[in-house]
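pipeline/complex-builder :: batch 7 item 3
reading input block
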Amino acid sequence: MAGERPPPLELCKAVNDLDKIVLREPRGCSAEVYLFGGQVLSWKNNRREELLFVSSKTAFKPPQAIRGGIPICFPQFSSSGNLEQHGFARNKFWTVDTNPPPLPTSSSVKSFVDLILKPTQDDLKNWPHSYEFRLRVALALGGDLLLTSRIRNTNSDGKPFSFTIAFHTYVSLSDISEVRVEGLETWDYLDNLKEGQRFTEQGDALTFESEIDRVYVGTPTKIAIIDHEKKRTLVMRKDGLPDAVVWNPWNKKAKSIPDFGVDDYKHTLCVGAANVEKPITLKPGEEWTGRLELSLVASSYCSGQLDPQKVLRGL
Ligand code: BG6
């Protein structure tokens, strides 16, 4: 019927026959979640502007991880353990969880999908632990994107397991040189470009002019990524995820990453809500919950600069 609103949730086929779920919100905001990787690959505001970056060179060929959106690094962040870099969750096909345990949801959420990842017999050879990783991706009225993760130890051998995790969010930017990140100043970080040594962030905000590969530890729950040129600010709120990964390979390193275009470094920054420094340990039957919320704030110039206080107060 003409003028009829599309349904709040649609399951469709994407490139290379990959399944994706499209979430919609009445004002026109949307999000797309791929079953491969349980990965959000698109998040658009009501002007249909894309807020996440996906590399034009990514192949969309499982089991190779898709470069962009919000890859989930689990059960290992980076190369800190024996598993493949960033763990295996981003290389697996998740399924729609049709009967998830109850999860309180705000009344402003009208569209959401529940996904689940469980190990196969083959997977247990790689990481010998049974788990259930439940992910709810929700789009709230006004377009906020909410990711709630629940990880349960379902081992029947009585063994605990430990993991690290990151939601490695690729934010879409006008130009990295026009971007400031507020909320991490004065916090400690582990610098992966300096053998993981610990430093304390100086200055009043992060700006970017070369490669960066850091894990900020024990950070506040709110981080603002301010894009001066687009006059917009992405606000990240996190809960249960005390750390924050900040990564941009810059031009030289980008050339060595086959699925990252040479100029892509200008148009994205990874800011990942994470739990890296102190791994989480779950005994059988125990569950961990982590939340990530992304919202967009239109920001205005204030004597040539955005007002960071306004941004951090969410005004
Ligand atoms: C960062 C890591 O978080 O992710 C880097 O600290 C890594 O070392 C980068 O290069 C990208 O990882 P990948 O596996 O997606 O290319």
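note: The radius of gyration is 19 Å.
queue -> next item
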